[in-house]
Write a structure and sequence with these properties.
This protein is an alpha+beta fold and 110 residues long. Helix content is 28%, strand content 14%. The protein has 3 helices and 4 strands, in the order ββαβαβα. A two-stranded antiparallel ribbon has the order 1-2. A hairpin with a 6-residue loop joins strand 1 and strand 2 (31-34). Helix 1 (38-47) packs across helix 3. The longest helix has 17 residues, at 93-109.
């Protein structure tokens, strides 16, 4: 009650080769974000929890897949934090997903 929780609602790292749903850059056609997992949107719908969109840019350079297994701590990661989003209890999960994904896309391009 009145607590806080941090959730990486996309379910993992963005991988350019994979079957998960992604959001692509219009110009480069490269994947930029993963689409939210449906369970997260269900949780928000049931609880009416406030959502603060956050994206991490550059984590693929710090922990590249299939490369040298140690973190490259000299690489830069940018943390972008959006404005809180409030959804009334019972908001359809698809609506929640669309609004949050749109906010994350806007963060990416800021």
């Amino acid at each position: 009650r009145n607590g806080r929780i941090i959730v990486f609602a996309e379910g993992g790292m963005l991988d350019s080769v994979g079957n998960e749903e992604k959001i692509f850059d219009i110009i480069t056609r490269q994947p930029i974000l993963r689409i939210l997992e449906p369970g997260f949107c269900e949780l928000v719908s049931i609880t009416g929890a406030k959502v603060i969109p956050v994206i991490l840019v550059g984590t693929d350079k710090v922990l590249p897949r299939g490369k040298f297994p140690f973190p490259r701590i000299w690489r830069k990661v940018i943390v972008k934090i959006g404005k809180p989003l409030v959804f009334p209890v019972g908001t359809p999960p698809n609506t929640i997903r669309e609004v949050i994904d749109k906010a994350r896309i806007n963060l990416y391009y800021e």
